[in-house]
Amino acid sequence: MASNFSRWILPVLSVFILLSSALQATKTFTLDLIDESEKYHRNLLQRQAGDEWRSIDIIYNSTQFNFFVDVKIGDARKNLKLRVLQSSHTWVASPWSTTQDCPPLTEERPCSAARNSGFFSLYPPDSSSSRNLSARGSFDIEYNDYSYVIGNWVRDKFQIGQLTLDDVNFGVGQSYNSTPTIGLGRSNSDSEYSTFLEVMQEKDIINTPSYGIYVGDIRGREGSSGSITFGGIDVAKFTRPLRTLSSKSSYALNLLGIDIVTEGKVVSKPLEQPEGLHRASTLSFSTASIHIPTDVFNVVMAHLGAEEPYYSIRTLPPDDSGLNFTFTDGLSIFVPYSQMAVPVSGSDNQYFLLLLPNDKKIIMGTPFFRSAYIFYDFQNEEFSIAPALYNITASNVTEVGVNNASISDVKWLYENPTQSSIPSPSSELGVLNTAVIVGGAVGGSAVVAITVALCFYLFYYRPKHRGIIAVIPQTQGNGMGQAPPPVSHHNEHVNRQISPVKSSYSSPVTSPTLATSTAPWVRPENIAVLLVHVPTQTK
Q1: Which of 78, 106, 138, 280 could lock onto 102 through a cystine, CB 3.0 to 4.6 A?
Q2: What is the pLDDT of residue 410?
């Protein structure tokens, strides 16, 4: 009897795990973020067959220094390329007439941007499923750089990669001097229409309007890529502890100082705030450069021997040389010069840095996001930040926002990994409310009943010779008791204080999702299937 029990304990436990895990489906959706490079894009970033960009990717255009994503709109699936912007609004450009693309007096640059994006016509309609929500001129947006767009509100379906999202609200611009965009920003209290992220929440794709962004190495030649994970945080992409800050108006860090670092050593401190004072620095991954005060910029350029008028440098500094930004709450982010450097066109040994003087506003643009992992939670009006790991191929996505919970409820994310132990799955159940606990109890009872029935069947009616499929749960889940990030077994640059390790770049840029996949997006289940052969005993 004991031997029979031991023979079937693994299958029974496997079925139990299968049933309990199947009850959990993660509400997350990830888009790859890949650097386009003139030198590498031909054989790395295009489809294996054909010359189109992979529609599932967000592409960083290394000429315009902006992020773009392909979106198919309406029942006709009109394809447009929209700039990814941390704005509340999404909009597309409408042709002025059947014979003229852009409105009269529109400058060539915004007109060219609209042409590159593609036009979406309402009259005659490019999509019969579009619904006009407002009168002409009701969509009226002015950005911080004084660019604008004027048009009307429309609602239609959006397809981004394998995700199709109905009832997306967006503007159709008739007059503009800006680039058509998809907005990944906070809700706009002045608008009655839901933002793109809020629609994702309403359609039950994600729990809260939130996303984590991992931009990755500017050189883009490792077998990894950046990503934007909607409704989740990828804990494999950064080093703990995470820091979470509240923000009801703007997403900014309190800057205390900027250090110049050469080969791992601080050689100058061009910016040091007096004790008790700090300077606001705005986070903006869609801003191409890091903006710093002019006097600090001049010290940095002089230290590098940069040549005016374009402040170009002739030698690319090593990875352990750059700028170290110190903020309140003990946060320090080191940004190597190599993550700001862009080759000068037509020159093999000359670079300019994505670093600009700005005495009005300090902005942490795209190069900063290459060295920091940042998670935005617009529902709870907070954002989280930690030093990023470079060239990570692993992914460990944790769903966030269950019952509108804050990520700060996941306590182990805020612990130093060298001083804390691995949390148990039950160590943080306190963040679940009573309804969830009751629901889990009911579901657990059902699973137990089914398991008992299966035990009876397997024991008395078992087949003689058969392999067993064991289902093992992944660490990916709802963030309550999530295991720490997996240990990486390849070269990586750990962005702690100032202790980078140079990486090697050998494998091409690839996407973890097949480029030619056309299957619709399906919410990932919280299980992974492993084939385990259970030997049978012969009589």
Answers
A1: 106
A2: 87
